[in-house]
Amino acid sequence: MSATQPALRELDEAAFRERYGCDRFEATLLGNRFEYVLEHVCQRLLACAFSPLLRDFYDFAATITGPPELDYPTPAVSKTFMAFTGTMTESVRNTVEEYGPGRLGAGDVIIGNDPYRIGTHVNDLLFCRPLFHDGRLVAFITLKAHQLDIGGAVPGGFSATKTSVYENGLVLSPRALVRGGEPVRETWTLLVDNARFAPVLVRDMQTICDCLDLGERLLKASLDRYGTAALHGAMRYACDADAERMTRALARLPDGTWRGEALVDCDGLDDSEEYPVRCTLVKRGARIEIDLSGTARQARTSINGTFLDVKATVGVALKFLFDPNGRFTSGMYRPVDIVIPPGAICSALPPQGVVFAYGESTNALLLAMLQAMADAVGEGAVAGDTGSPNLHTARGVNPDGMPWIAVGVAGGEAGPWGATSAGDADSYSKFYQANSIDTAVEVSEADSPVVVLRREYVADSAGPGFNRGGAAVLKDSTFLAPAAHNLIVLRFKQPTGKGVRGGGDGATGGVWLWHPAAGERVARPPKGTDGYRTAIRVAGRLDEATGLPSVGGTYHWFGRDPEWATAPGAVWRYVTNGGGGWGDARTREPSRVLRDVRDGYATIEGARRDYGVVIVGDPEHDPEGLTIDEAGTRALRISAEVRENRVHPTG
Amino acid sequence: MIGVDVGGTFTDVVAIRDGRIAVTKVSSDPKRLQEAVIEGARRLGVAGSDVFNHASTQGLNALLTRRLPKIGFLTTAGHRDMLDAGRCWRPFDGQLDPRWRRPFGDAARPLVPRYLRRGVEERVLASGEVLQPLDLAQARAELELLKRCGVEGLAICLLHSYVNDAHERALAQLAREVLGPVAISVSSEVSPRAKEFSRAATTVVDAVMKLLYATYAAGLDAGLRAEGFTGELNFADCTAALLPWREALRAPYRILFAGPAAGTAACQRLSHALGEPRLICCDVGGTSTDVSLVIDGQSFTNDSFEIEHDFVVSALSTELASVGAGGGSLVAITPAGDIAVGPGSAGAWPGPACYGRGGQQPTVTDACLLMGILDSGGFAGGQLTLDVGAAQRAFASLDTPVPVERRAGQAYRIAVNNIAEEITNLAIRHGADPRDFSLVAYGAAGPMLLPSTLDLLGVRRVIVPPHPGLFSALGLLAGDLTYGESRSRYVLLRPGAEQEIAAVFDAMEQRLRAQIGDAAREATLRRSFDGRLMGQTWETPFVEMPDGPIDAAAVAAMIEVFHVEYARRNGRAFRELPVQAVSYRVQLVVPAPKFEFMPLPDAVGPPVPTGSRRLRQVGDREVEASLYDRAQLAAGQRIDGPAVIHEALCTTFVPPGTRALVGRHGEIAIELAAGGAR
Q1: Distance from B136 to chain A by nearest Cα, in Å?
Q2: What residues have CB less than 8 Å from A188, skipping those under 6 apart?
Q3: Chain A residue with minimal CA distance to B411?
Q4: How far apart are CA B91 and CA B109, in angstroms?
Q5: Which of A457, A642, B615, B653 could bond A471 through an S-S bridge, CB–CB 3.0 to 4.6 Å?
Q6: What is the mean pLDDT of chain B?
C-alpha cells in the first residue's frame, strides 16, 4: 500500500466499489464467510481425524487463497497451529506454480511436502483444492496437515538425531492425489509403500479430502450468490485491511534499531556447538526489517527450520505485539522485510541441513524478537514462555506382543506463558506457536503402561514482576513395563521465560531419572530438594552439589544416550522453564504477593527475595492466617535490592 | 400445570388450566428468587395444579459471576492443578493474543483457589488396581485444614475412581466425620466417567449447586404448599427432562442450565402439532441467540457442555449453539471503518440507547426502532417508551464512512447475517440442509429479526409461535420425568465382551429401578453407548444400544450400529477397524402431562390493519407497512409484507417480498412471496 492512498475507512461507497468491485457490506460479509468456511473445514478434521497429531495437537492449518493472476492473496488462515500461518501463501503458490496452474481441473487435489519448498517439515502434507467458477480458476482451499508417518529412519519422525534428508522421510514434489474427484492410484500407493501406519494415513487423507469437499461446497455457495468479482474484491480487501493495521501500528512506533538473541542449546549429535538465533530489527517510518544475520549455521542434525518458518514466526511475533485480535492474512507482510542468511539453523539447505524439530529454533526467534521489541512497544511487551515442547517419546512391547507408544505424555510438553499487561500468565499451555488439547491422564494410562505420578506447579519458578509469569510445570512419570525413551530437550541452558519492562526471568528446568531400589515397584524420589542429589542428571544446567538447575551449573546433554532404556518403575522428572515476568516486581501489590504465597506460587522466602514483600505465617498449615508485615515490606522495598537470581525448583 | 423459568431480571410463569394458556412476568430479586416464583404462582393460581415445573439460571449465573460458596477440592496428591490446567487448549481466537488467559485459571478467576485444592496420598491405576493405599492420617490432616478454612462444601475427585471408587468412598466418609454436615460431592457418584478434568469440574459444579439449591428447593416446596399446591414440584435438567425435586438434588449439576433446552422442547411440541418434522429453533434474547435443531420431531442431546471456554460439565444437555447477537447487541466500528455487531451487549442495564437510561452506543434494538419495525410507544407490554432521538444520536456518533442514513439498516442486516451463519453452523454439524427446515422464531427479539433470514438461509418458512416471548417457559410443560445413570469402562467390542458390558448395564438399571419404585412399571428404558474406532482419542457419543439381554448378538449389533452411525455423522465408515466401547448410559422415562396448543377460531374475513407506518432502510427506498394486532388475528388470514404485527411482549416483522399466514394453532408462518427473493 502506498502512502498516498487514502485509508480504507475514508473510502466512500463509490470509491470502495471502484477499488474492490463490490460494496463495503459485501466485502465485510465475505470476509466473515472466509473465516467461517475455514472454521468448518478445521472442525470437521478435528472431529474425524485418526492421528492424535491432528485430533489433539491441532497440527494442521487451512487457508483460502486467491488465483495466480492476483498473486495468490491469502485472506484467511485458520488459527489452528500458529507455526503454519505464514508458510501458507508460499505453500500454495510454490506447489501450484511447479505443478502448473494450467493442468488443474475441478475436483483435483494437489499435494506436496518438501520443507524447502513449503516450510515446516516432511510430515506436513499440503492438500490443495482448486475452485472453478464458470470454467475459470478463482480460488484454492487448502489444508496442510501433519501425517502420522512419512517414512524415514525414525517412526513418526520426531527426532533430533537425523543427519540428512535421506533419513528424514519421503519428499514429494507437487503431484495430483485426486484428479477430477478420482483418486490417482499411483500417488496413494507411493505413500502407502513408503510410510508406516499406512492404514491411519489413508483414512486421514480420505478425511482431509472430505474436508476440502466441505470447504468447496461452502465457498461455492458464496460464489453463486455474490459472484467472482465480489469474491476477489473481498480477498483483496481483507489483505489490504490487515496490511493497513500492521502499517499503522508500525507508524505509531518510534523509529529504532533493536537486537535480540535466544539460544538453542545444542543439536542431537553432541553438545560441542551452541546455536544462537540473532535478529536485528530496524524500524523506519511505517516499515520494519528483521535481519537474522549472525544466527548460527545450520545444525548437523534434524533440529533445523526453513526460511518459510522464519516468515511464519515473524508474522506471529508482529501479531502478538501489534494486532492480536486481527485476522492473519498475506497482507500483513507488506510493510515487513526479512533478511535471512542461507544455511542458518532457521534457513537450512538440503541435503545436510535436515529439517524436523523446527519449532525449537523458531521459538528462539520469536523470543528474540519479543525481547528486542520489549522496550519499544511499552505496555504491549510480552515476556518469554516455556520455550519448547520438551517432547518425550516412550515405547515398548506389551506381554501379548503388541507394541505400545506414548508420545508427549511423560515430558515437559505443556508449560507456562510469559506475563503481559493483562495480568499474571497461565502456567499450563503449549509453547507460543502451538496449541493442543491434552490427553487426559486417565486416558494415557489406559492406553499405555505410563503412570503420571505428579503434575504440579513449582513454587518460585515464575519470573517475578508486577505481573508474574506462569509457573514451571513439574511432572513425574513412571512406566510399569520395560521402556525405551527418546528425548528432545534443547532449551535449558538459558532462561526462555525472559522478563520484560523490568520483570524477572523464569527459572530454567531440567530432566532427572530415578531407578527403583530393590523391592520397590516404583521408585520414590525423596521429597523436597534432597531428591535431586540422588537422581541421574539427564538434562539441563545443574548445580554440581545439589543437582538443581543453576545458571552457572554444569550442562548435561540429553543425547549422550540416544535411547534411554528403563526397567519398570523408573521415575522420570521433567521441570519446564518458568515464564517471564512483566514490570518491576517491587511494584506488585503486596496483597497479590500474599495470595501467591497462600496459593503456593511463591514461598515466604521467595516473596521477600523476589518481591521485597514480608509475609508472616505458615502457608502450609494455616493459609488463611498469612499476613503482610507492612513496615517490614516498606523497609525492604526501599533499602534492599531484590536479588536477580532465580530460585530453583524444589520437590 | 405450571411452568416457571427464573431468569436474572424476570421470572416467566406459564399456567395451563382447562387447556387455556395464561402467562405472567414477575421481576426477579436476585437475593430472594423464590419469592418471585411464589408470587407468580399466586397470580396464576397454584391450587389444583398437578405439576409445578421449574427452571432457573441462578446456578449458571453464580458460576459465571463467581459469586460462589467456599468449596474445597480433594484429589490424588500431585494432581490438584488439573482445575487450573483444564484440557490445556486455547481457543482459536486466542492464538495470536498473548493476553488471553484461561478464564477459570489461577491467573484469572478460579472456582476453587489453589490453597483449597489439596492432594491426598493414594493411587489407583487404570485397571482399578491400587498402586498406593489411601493414607487416612494424611487425608485427615488435609480435611482438618479445609475445616479451619471454613469450607461450606467439598468436591472429591481421585484418579481412576470411575473404575474403582473405594478410595473416594472412604474419603467421603472421613470428610463427613471431620467436616460435619457440609455439602459433599463425590465424582464416582456424580459422574463416574473417564477423563479426570471433566469429572472434577462436574463434581465442583455439583457441590456448588447443592449449596445453592438445598435451602431454596425445600423453601420453594414449602412455600408452594402454603399456597395450596398439592402436586409434584419438578426441576428441569439441561435437556428439559423433569426430575422430582428431591431426586434432582441428589446430583444437582444436572439442572444447571434448563431454560434454553425448554425452548427446544416447546419447539418439539410445535413440531408435532404442525406436522413439521424438521425445525430450526432460534431463541433471540437481549444478549445472545440460542440455536438448536429438531429432526424427525427430536432434538439433539450432548453428553457435556462448556459454561466458559473449556470448563466442561458432563451433563446431558440439548445441543445448542450460541452466538452473541440479540436485541441488545452493540453496534461498533472496526479499525477499517466497517460496521460490526456484537458480541458485546448493552445488557439489561442501561440497555439500548432508545431505552433512555444512559446507553450511548447503538444496539440492534435501536436499529429496529429507526427502521420503523419497532414502535416508540408500548414496548415490552407498555412498560417502556422508546426514545427515537437517543437512538439517532447513538448511530450518528459512530465514526464510519457509511452514510448516517444507511447505518441502522446495515447494522440490522449484519446482525441478521451473524445469526444466519450460526444457524448454518449448527445445520452443517448435523449434515442438515436448511432448505428442508422451517425456522421457529421466539425470544423477545426473534420475531423482529428472524423473518429477514428467509432469503439468506433458504428455509421453507419462519414460524412465530404463540407467546414467543415466553415460549421457553412453555417448554417446561413439554418434558417427561427422566431418571438416568452413566458409567465408563474401556471394552473392545469382540466376542466375549458381552459379560462385562452386561454387568455395567445391570448395575445401572437395578439402581434406577430401585430408586423410582412402582413408577418403573410404566417407564420406558433407553440405553446408549459412546464408542471409538481403535486408535481414535475422542468418542462418538449416543450410539443406540439394542434392547433386551446383552449377549454375543447384542455386541455384534453394537458394532454394526456404531459403523452405521459413524458413517451417518461423518460421511464415511471404517468397517475394518475394531470398535471400543467407552461409556454407557441408561434412562428410565416416565411420561408426564404436557401442554397442547390452543386452536384459533377460523377467520371470517381478511385481517384488519390497525394503522400503517413508514419503514426506512429496509430496502432501497422507504416503504409503507400495515400494522396489525396479533390478538385480533384468526386462522387462515394472510398478511402481505411489509407489515408489522404487535402483541404484548413481542413485535413480528413481515418483510417486503414475504407474506404471513395465520395457522390453526395460533402460529404465524412467514414465507417468501412468489418472486419475493430480494
Answers
A1: 17
A2: A177, A202, A205
A3: A25
A4: 17
A5: A457
A6: 90
